[in-house]
Every structure is written in structure tokens, then in C-alpha cells.
Design goal:
By secondary structure, the chain is of the alpha+beta class. The chain folds into 3 domains: 163 residues, no CATH class; 73 residues, Nuclear Transport Factor 2, Chain: A (Roll); 220 residues, no CATH class. Helices cover 30% and strands 19% of the residues. A 6-stranded antiparallel beta sheet has the order 3-4-8-7-6-5, with helices on both faces. A 5-stranded mixed beta sheet has the order 13-19-20-18-16, covered by helices on one side. It has a 4-stranded antiparallel beta sheet with strand order 9-10-11-12, with helices on one face. The longest helix is centred in the C-terminal third of the chain and has 26 residues. It is globular and about 70 Å long.
């Protein structure tokens, strides 16, 4: 429905109302993305970890009213904590136009003051343009004298009719000039980072088989002070360490951070388990017995075709490669028929189930220009002796641990880690805060569960997958019958069940996604849940992601009232913007 009030008068009314509300100290949850910003974050006397809700800078409210006045229907906004400018906006934000870089720049230029960006946009470089099921997105990276600004990025999404439907703004307003000439070299920065890392963290740094250290020159404004910085990345066959070093003084600016996205302790022709040994046999009493072949009956194995191999005699294919493994299985005839006593079996499992995951993504419509993570996923199965696995956001590789049950013997562990790779492809370094990290783990669990149900239903004569994940891998560290790494049918509620551990907290997100799957159906839910990531920032909250799910479902013309009800029932409206039960006016 169009406004019947002339637009200039409508804008004036919005501006006056915004000024009045800001002066009176009141702003609706719809505008601020918060229902109670003064909440203590405690319930029942127990502190609940919660991401703070940022507020709008009152000086920007008249400019916000102008943008909102041009929009059609409801607009949802979240604000940047530092600048007070819009961080994420969902809604029909413009009239239809050609989805192009110039149109995106024109939109940003019109609202440059609101976003607190340089109105000339000369420091924004288009670094990515992607087509998807819900439209075309343009990603601009901020540069200062040609040097990337760390985390400085703006994303503009156009829907199929050419309307701007979403904006993500992590542009970094620089309060002063930054001399772009470093006083220390990249090599010197690498050595400073090496010296900084504790001796226990240095294990593996001198291993010639790991990737060489990386030093990236960036401008960082962390702490409010813009400066020239070396971002140094040290790879190991365990953690991937990130260290920030002042490029002028050589000072280490903060403690090293491990960039890996870990799973918790879990875990041609080829031979694989149907998901895992317990799912394949229906016998929860099976035990690892130190990788003994005799520990698992032959009925657990299935001979499968290994498609899209590149003909190297190794498990190298279009979408998966075991090339990070130390001692690789090789077959000039491309027959990889191993039992679990050989690491070749884990390699085959990794290849087959990673390729299966990518084929599922493409079957949902994400292919060609709209593809998601359609790259060769490199992995290793014999580098990490702990009972753990991880995805590295730096090297983009997956490492499967060999402690307990070898992690790559369980397809649900493989799919969980691939979930991190998917998210990293859609949102750079997704999962940097408590809630986004929990969503990363929750999505990985959902992805493992939805793939498991599809694969097992086809492979086990119509027997669907249960909501228990990684039954086989978890036999070495869980009790119960069957053992479960985690489940998808929990009843955790936000925020009182938050404990500050991303895998535990992720269960409330995976359970909500699993319920959405039950009302939308597998195909629709998988599309929405995969696609909604493009609307997120790396530090999104549960509430932001809930709105992104609804916005994505609307764009795909799927019903949203049940999605909103599920998210609401799980508490994700708490301290956030209310969810809509209907799509905005197109």
C-alpha cells in the first residue's frame, strides 16, 4: 500500500517525530533493535551472556527518517555499536532499478551521511558480486590509500525486481589520517608474531609441511585509534594463530587469537559407512577398539561411486581433496576399498561425504552464478591426533582428528565442519561473538542432521535419520544408548539457557532450525537456512539472524508466520526487534 500523504510532508513528519523521541529518551524496539536496553541480563540471579544491543546516534535519526520514509512497508534496523550508524537493514528500501554497481553506489551516496561513509565513495572498491535465489549482492571493501581497512565492508542486496532489500554496513569511520608507509617489513612482523606466541603455541610452526606465515598490511581502528597494522597469520596442524602488530612501532596490539572454527570433541569406487557404523548397523554397543577392523561388522560398509575425481590417482576431485593428509591413499584404478583400520578409509569417507554435501547444495538450486562454496574443499585425516576437528578460516582447510574414533569415520562430523566452510564462504570469518559463534555451531549441527536424514532415508530403505548426532564418534566420550554428540530436539530457551559455550548454546539455534524444517519441509528449509547467511554480518545476533530468515523466506515467497512463531517461542525476540508474522508490502 502506498502512502497517501505527499512524500516531502511525510519525511518532515518522520524527522520531527524522530527528534521528539530522541529528546525524550525513548525509541521503539522497531527502530533500535532492542526492547529493553537497560536490562541487566540476569534471570533468577544468574548472569546470562548476551551481546549488547547497540543504539542509534540521535544525530542520525533525521537521516534515518528520510531513508525509512522512502521505504515500502516495514523496515528492520540494527545499529553499529561504535558509530551509531545502521549496521544491518532489512526492508524494501528503494524503488526498482537495475541491479548494478552504479545503482548500489548511487544508493549509498544518497545515504552516505547516515552510513557515515565518505560521500564520494572513493575508498570503496567492489570486491564481490554474487547472484543468489533472493537477488544480487554487491560487496564493497573499504581501503585507505589502497590498503584494506580491517573489517571495513558494505554489502548491498537487490531483489529480483531491482529494489534494495538489505544493507550490511561495517564501514570504519577513520577519525584521523593514517600514514600508509610501514616502518617494519612483513618478514619482521612475522618474527615479532612468532616471538609473541607462547612456547606451547609454537608447536608445529617449524613444520615445513604447514603453509608459510602470512603478513597482511591493513588499517585497523580497533580501540578507536586508527593505525597501520600487520595482521600476521601463523598456521600449524592445530591452531591457526592471528597476531596484530603495529606496523610503525612493532608493538603487539592484542593477544594471539586462534582463528579455527572447532567442532567439540567428537569427532571412483570407494567403501564408506552409511553415515557411521552405528547408524549403518543399528547397533549402539559398537566400540572403537583402537581402529580395529574387527570392531565393526562388514554389514556397516557400503560400496559407492566416487564422482568428479580429477584422475590424479588420489582422492582429488572438483569439490573435495584429501591433499592436506600426510600419507595419502593412492590408486591408479581409482578404487579406494579400505576398511577402518586404514587411514584410506577416513580419506574415502571425507571425499565422498563432502562431495555429497556440495551436490545437495546444487540440487537446491545453488549452482552456476548462484553457487555456494562450489570450490575444492581440502581436508586432512592424519595431521591432528586429538579427538577434535576444525575448519580454518585462514587456510580454508578442514582437519579431522584421530583421537578416539577417527572423526572422518562419522559423516555427521564431516558435514558439521563443512557447515563452517559454507558460512565462511557466505560471510567472511562468521562466528566472532558468543551468539554468532553459537549460530555457527548450531547451523553445523542442523546441516549434519538434514543431510543425514536425506542420505539415510535413501540408503537404509526409508529409515529416517534420528535427531541424535555423531553416534559413532561420541562413543569414546559420551554415555547413554545411543551416545549422542548433541541432539536437534532440545528445548533450550534464550537467554536463560545461554552458558557462554558455543557448542552448548548452539543447541538452541539448531533446535529452532530443525523445527522450521518440520513446518517448511526439507527442501524449502534448507534453501532458506543456507541463503539467509548472505544477509548477516560475522557478529550477528540471534535476533538479527531471525529477521534474516524471515526476510529470506519472504524473498522466496515462502510462508513466514510459523518461522516467526518458532523463533519467538525460543526467546529470540528477547532484547531485540519483534519478528513479523507476514512479509512486507512488495
Amino acid at each position: 500500500m502506498k502512502n497517501t500523504v505527499p512524500l516531502p510532508l511525510y519525511r518532515l513528519a518522520c524527522i520531527l517525530l524522530a527528534l521528539f523521541l530522541s529528546m525524550s529518551g525513548f525509541m521503539s524496539a522497531h527502530a533500535l533493535g532492542a526492547s529493553d536496553p537497560s536490562s541487566s541480563g540476569k534471570q533468577g540471579g544468574v548472569h546470562q551472556p548476551r551481546q549488547p544491543v547497540a543504539q542509534a546516534d540521535p544525530a542520525l535519526l533525521p537521516l534515518w527518517a528520510v531513508l525509512e520514509g522512502k521505504a515500502k512497508g516495514k523496515v528492520t534496523v540494527f545499529w553499529n555499536a561504535g558509530s551509531g550508524s545502521p549496521k544491518t537493514i532489512f526492508g524494501s528500501l528503494s524503488e526498482p532499478m537495475k541491479a548494478s554497481e552504479s545503482s548500489a553506489r548511487r544508493f549509498l551516496s544518497e545515504h552516505a551521511q547516515l552510513f557515515r561513509i565518505d560521500p564520494t565513495l572513493s575508498d570503496l572498491v567492489l570486491t564481490r558480486q554474487t547472484a543468489s535465489l533472493i537477488g544480487t549482492q554487491f560487496v564493497f571493501t573499504q581501503r585507505h590509500h589502497g590498503i584494506p581497512v580491517y573489517d571495513g565492508q558494505i554489502k548491498v542486496l537487490f531483489d529480483g525486481e531491482g529494489r534494495v532489500r538489505a544493507v550490511n554496513n561495517s564501514y570504519v569511520p577513520l577519525t584521523g589520517a593514517v600514514d600508509p608507509i610501514p616502518l617494519m617489513s612483513a618478514g619482521q612482523a612475522v618474527e615479532v608474531g612468532r616471538t609473541h606466541l607462547e612456547k606451547s603455541q609454537l608447536q608445529g610452526l617449524i613444520d615445513e609441511t604447514v603453509p608459510a606465515p602470512i603478513a597482511n598490511l591493513v588499517v585497523s581502528a580497533e580501540g578507536g585509534v586508527p593505525r597501520l597494522v600487520w595482521e600476521v597469520i601463523h598456521h600449524t596442524w592445530g591452531p591457526t594463530w592471528q597476531v596484530f602488530i603495529d606496523a610503525k612501532t612493532g608493538q603487539v596490539l592484542k593477544s594471539a587469537e586462534d582463528l579455527n572454527r572447532y567442532a567439540p570433541p567428537l569427532q571412483g569406487i570407494g567403501q564408506v559407512f552409511v553415515t557411521n557404523a552405528i547408524v549403518a548397523t543399528g547397533d549402539p554397543s559398537l566400540q572403537d577398539n583402537k581402529d580395529a577392523a574387527s570392531a565393526v561388522p562388514s554389514s556397516a560398509y557400503k560400496t559407492v561411486g566416487l564422482e568428479r575425481l580429477l584422475g590424479t590417482s588420489y582422492l582429488d576431485g572438483e569439490y573435495a581433496s584429501s591433499s592436506a593428509s600426510k600419507k595419502r591413499a593412492s590408486s591408479p584404478t581409482h578404487q579406494f576399498l579400505f576398511d577402518r583400520s586404514s587411514n584410506g578409509f577416513s580419506e574415502t569417507m571425507g571425499y565422498y561425504f563432502l562431495d555429497f554435501a556440495q551436490q545437495r547444495i546444487q540440487a537446491l538450486g545453488f549452482k552456476g552464478a548462484k553457487s555456494i562454496n562450489a570450490r575444492q574443499q581440502v581436508f586432512s585425516v592424519d595431521r591432528f591426533t586429538k579427538d577434535n576437528s576444525y575448519y580454518s578460516v585462514s587456510s580454508k582447510d578442514i582437519t579431522f582428528g584421530t583421537g578416539g574414533v577417527d572423526d572422518a569415520e562419522d559423516a555427521e562430523v564431516i558435514w558439521h565442519e563443512y557447515g563452517h566452510s559454507i558460512q565462511d564462504d557466505l560471510v567472511d570469518r562468521f562466528g566472532t561473538t558468543a551468539e554468532s559463534g553459537a549460530m555457527g555451531e548450531g547451523f553445523g549441527d542442523y546441516w549434519a542432521g538434514t543431510l543425514g536424514e536425506r542420505y539415510n532415508t535413501a540408503s537404509l530403505n526409508g529409515v529416517p535419520e534420528k535427531v541424535c548426532l555423531a553416534e559413532w564418534d561420541s562413543t569414546t566420550y559420551r554415555t547413554g544408548t545411543p551416545t549422542c554428540l548433541r541432539r536437534l530436539d532440545g528445548n533450550k530457551h534464550y537467554p536463560e539457557d545461554m552458558v557462554g559455550e558455543v557448542h552448548d548454546d548452539g543447541e538452541m539455534w539448531s533446535a529452532a532450525l530443525w523445527l522450521i524444517r518440520s513446518v517448511l519441509g526439507a527442501d524449502r528449509a534448507d534453501r532458506v537456512i543456507l541463503q539467509h547467511h548472505v544477509l548477516l554480518t560475522k557478529d550477528a545476533t540471534f535476533n538479527m539472524a531471525g529477521h534474516a530468515l524471515i526476510e529470506t523466506a519472504c524473498s522466496l515467497k515462502y510462508p513466514v508466520s510459523d518461522i516467526a512463531s518458532i523463533l519467538r517461542a525460543r526467546g529470540f525476540e528477547t532484547n531485540g526487534t519483534p519478528f513479523s508474522d507476514a512479509c512486507p508490502i512488495p
